[in-house]
Amino acid sequence: MAIEVKPILPRFGAEISGVDISQPLDEATRQQIRDLQDEWGVTVWRDTGLDDAGHVAFSRIFGHVELAPRHPGKPSRMPEPELFDASNLDIHGNINQDPSTRLAAGGNRLFHSDSSFMDVRAAQALLLCHEAPPHGGPTWFADSRGAYDDLPQAMKDRLEGLEATHSYFWSRRRAGYPYTEEEVDAKPSATHPMVLTHAGSGRKSLYVGAHTRDIVGMDRDEGRALIDELIAHATQDKYVFAVHYRPGDMTIWDNLCSLHRGGEYDAEHRRDMRRTTVREQANSSAIADDHYTSMFVTAKDTPFSPAEETVDKVLEKS
Ligand code: OGA
Ligand code: MN
Q1: Share of the chain above pLDDT 70, in %
Q2: Model confidence over 11-41: pLDDT tens digits?
Q3: Which among 28, 176, 253, 256 has the fewest CB atoms less than 10 Å away?
Q4: Are 311 and 175 in contact, with CB atoms under 8 Å apart?
Q5: CA distance readout (Å), 148 to 153, 228, 233, 238, 284
């Protein structure tokens, strides 16, 4: 059966069918899938039949799959070290009532590019649904290449050569965590160009999201105003769509040409989502597999337990 491609927006996002990705694939099919991913930026795969091991194995067609970050002293529910737990469940598989987890979920509702705060950026992310809330607990996606294309030439000229800093702790602060500016200053960050050329398509793409903090060499307020303006531009309705999930469905997004955010759903319901992450460079295995964990250790990131009322207030405002 031939692979079928159903576009979601005219140049961004496509639903793919006609290939069983739970089975080993020949090289021609693998290449076809990589090409589709490069072209569409986000692909949606329904009813994949993938289990945890199959999820990790399929992810490897895109390159080096990294180990999921582990917070020191916080055990993971995931059976494979490559799986990142994007669920609302605790280590025992019950709905997580922990206030800081609820706050983190609030942070995930801001449009972002995964791992932009690391020197080695994430490329493809593969998010597989194991359990979904009744209305599918969506993920939203935004087209950073289309958004770049449509910028006025004067803005493209302005962005040429500019770099920005990205910090995990900054996006947490944006989401309501009580970090001060000075505390964020003291934590690790990464610096990346604000416009990149997407290797798989040769198209230019904006690289700005919730982790983006300051523009290098620019006044802080001016830089932040420009960052906010670019995020608002890139997340207009015409660049954005949502995917609702049923168990077995998977989305693959390319963090180097799209933004995404977790959507709203009724927090009373279980949502079990698991993600693998493929690194940007093909030969990036030279960098320590646990670079993420080292970042948290360097940052002395201590688990934070705000009062329930604090979280309610923060989430009401966002
Ligand atoms: C992620 C993420 C969104 C979602 O796993 O990186 O942002 O809908 N997930 O769970
Ligand atoms: Mn994410």
Answers
A1: 90
A2: 999 999 999 999 999 999 999 999 999 999 9
A3: 28
A4: no
A5: 10, 15, 9, 13, 27
- Ion ligand 2: protein residues whose beta carbon lies under 5 Å: 114
Choose one of 260, 264, 269 to mutate for the ligand 1 pocket test, by most ligand atoms within 8 angstroms of C-beta. 260
Ligand 1 center to 276 CA (angstroms): 11
100 confidence band (pLDDT: 50, 70, 90) = confident
pLDDT (tens digit per residue) in 204-253: 999 999 999 999 999 999 999 999 999 999 999 999 999 999 999 999 99
By alpha-carbon position, which residue is closest to atom 10 of ligand 1?
A: 262
Mapping DSSP to helix (H, G, I), strand (E, B) and coil, where does residue 246 land?
Answer: coil
Q: Which atom of ligand 1 is nearest to the CA of 114?
A: 6
Residue nearest to atom 3 of ligand 1 (CA): 262
**CA–CA dist 178, 190 (Å, integer):** 21
For ligand 1, whether the C-beta of 260 sits within 6 Å is yes
Domains and CATH numbers, the chain: 4-317 (3.60.130.10)
Residue 179's Cβ-side half-sphere holds a number of Cα atoms within 13 Å equal to 23
Q: Which ligand is nearest to the CA of 86?
A: 1
**CB–CB of 255/127 below 8 Å?**
no
Please indicate whether residue 130, judged by its CB atom, sits closer than 6 Å to ligand 1. no
**Pairing label, strands 139-143, 204-206:** unpaired
